[in-house]
From TrEMBL, chain B:
GO terms for molecular function: NADP binding; oxidoreductase activity; proton-translocating NAD(P)+ transhydrogenase activity. GO terms for biological process: NADPH regeneration. This is proton-translocating NAD(P)(+) transhydrogenase. It catalyses: NAD(+) + NADPH + H(+)(in) = NADH + NADP(+) + H(+)(out). GO terms for cellular component: plasma membrane. It is found in: Cell inner membrane. The transhydrogenation between NADH and NADP is coupled to respiration and ATP hydrolysis and functions as a proton pump across the membrane. It comes from the Bacteria.
């Protein structure tokens, strides 16, 4: 009964997100669309708070209050022109949160209080750590490029592509170790935990290297793409926790964010590949980044 | 697990259909709004921080809860602030959008 009510509340919040996104496509209805989407979030949070078995209320309320205060303060005080760079930070926090949720779940399994860890669990945890952490560091770099503490021009150095390739291989190895040791976990916990930490560290660097070669004028597209990633990271965390709200809404916004990213590229007469590989293309790379008379 | 996979695939199709024609002036606010929705991971953070038993998982979950809440609360508020400008200057939304594009291209 309880889980049925929670699932229905999650369904309602997903429906509100869909209506919200629909209404955000016209200037007249956009503000109510945002209000509907925030109502959807409230429904999901309240349902989780009241219908699941919260063990530590002070911690939960403290976390919500602390995060809420910081969020309000940042959103209220930011200059109009600095809003996109603040959105980049928020998005990075969302990705980080998904990675941490999976980390917490891994720690929970490691403590031996929960059973049923298998290769599938390892895959979903690894995915949300990978996507969430890339989103986090990529978004922080995007913030730097938008606000000016990192130069807006594409940064490249000899061996950038080789280093990125090596990091991808490293991430793949850490991912593989996590899956390989899934059966032995948590009796043998050390390889799993070290591989998870290694995956997080590799993904952190990967996010940096993927964004620094892209020019500052293209950052809104990058933030939109990373936003799509953070939706997917939330969906992956949903697989870890077996939580429908995260799977439905995370996937929904992951896919919608991808469409929006493509629309933004089209508005600039560019392809997504052109934006992403702008600084990567060797000889013709910088030229591709300079086509557009922006910034 | 199989049910979750079915939900995932259907939600992905829904997500690709929900956005059709977005005027360019709304690109940044919509990106911001979508970012706030991707903060749904706050639900996962609530589960991780409030329903786990070990000290490690609880404190990692607490960290997740704080950053996820910043994303959600700040995200919806900042989107609302962006969209407020459209209500005031109904006549010239294009100039509002242009201002934002300039800001974001800095």
């Amino acid at each position: 009964m309880k889980t049925a009510i929670i699932d229905l509340a999650y369904l309602l919040s997903a429906v509100l997100f869909v209506f919200g996104l629909k209404r955000m496509q016209s200037p007249v209805t956009a503000r109510t669309g945002n209000a509907l989407a925030s109502l959807g979030m409230l429904v999901a949070v309240v349902a989780t708070l009241f219908l699941q078995d919260i063990l530590s209320w002070p911690l939960i309320l403290g976390g919500l209050a602390l995060g809420g205060l910081i969020g309000v303060a940042l959103a209220r005080t930011v200059e109009m022109t600095a809003m996109p760079e603040l959105v980049a930070v928020f998005n990075g926090f969302g990705g980080l949160a998904s990675a941490l949720v999976s980390g917490a779940e891994l720690a929970q399994y490691a403590s031996g209080d929960v059973y049923g860890f298998g290769a599938v669990t390892a895959v979903t945890i690894a995915l949300s750590i990978l996507i969430g952490t890339v989103t986090f560091s990529g978004s922080i770099i995007a913030n730097g490029k938008l606000s000016g503490w990192i130069t807006g021009s594409p940064i490249s150095f000899p061996g950038l592509r080789v280093l990125t390739g090596l990091l991808l291989v490293g991430a793949g190895v850490a991912f593989g170790v996590m899956v390989a040791y899934a059966e032995a976990f948590p009796t043998l916990a050390r390889p799993m935990i070290l591989a998870a930490l290694g995956l997080g560290a590799t993904a952190l660097l990967l996010g940096v290297l993927l964004v620094i070669p892209i020019g500052g004028a293209d950052m809104p597209v990058v933030v939109s793409l990373l936003n799509s990633y953070s939706g997917l990271a939330a969906a992956a965390a949903g697989f870890v926790l077996d939580n429908t709200a995260l799977i439905v809404s995370g996937t929904l916004v992951g896919a919608a964010g991808m469409i929006l990213t493509v629309l933004m590229c089209e508005a600039m007469n560019r392809s997504l590949a052109n934006v992403m590989l702008g600084g990567f293309g060797g000889g013709d790379g910088p030229a591709a980044g300079l086509d557009v008379p922006e910034g | 697990m199989l049910n979750n996979l079915i939900i995932f695939v259907l939600a992905a199709f829904l997500g690709t259909e929900v956005l059709t024609k977005v005027p360019q002036t709304l690109h940044t606010p919509l990106m911001s709004g979508a970012n706030a929705i991707s903060g749904i991971t706050v639900v996962g953070a609530l589960v991780a921080a409030g329903m786990t038993t070990g000290p490690w998982s609880t404190w990692i979950g607490f960290g997740a809860l704080v950053v996820a809440t910043i994303n959600v609360v700040g995200g919806f508020l900042v989107t609302d602030r962006m969209l407020k400008m459209f209500g005031k200057k109904e006549a010239a939304p294009a100039s509002v959008g242009a201002g934002q594009t300039n800001g974001s291209a800095d």
